[in-house]
Write the structure tokens for this entry.
Amino acid sequence: MKKLTIILSGLLLVSTNYVFAKDHSEVALDHAKMATSATTTADVVQHAGAALDHTLTAALAAKSIAKNHLNAGAEELEKAIDQGNLGQLSSAVSHSKSAVEHIAAANDAANAGNSKNSKKNIME
């Protein structure tokens, strides 16, 4: 009975970890997209900052290619925030667009990895 409880707890933890990362990366993508359409540097800084927080949280649980893209997206968001604080709107938006590409790629990589795992589990 104790073994079953431990196994079920482990499975719940693993599945929760995936949902946790996925939710944060989707919110990060939404905020990064809002930063790309911002018309003021203050808006870019606000949305890029929120996207950065969620990107870093998602990166904690991500693995492999998705983690690399989330880290690259976080770097672009930091640059967007820096440029926004310097009053450089076009540069801040440009870095935000690069972040969107990386975060979207991370989400695609995570979804592809999870669909492979579910297919593998079905076949077993």
The radius of gyration is 17 Å. The chain has one domain: 2-115.
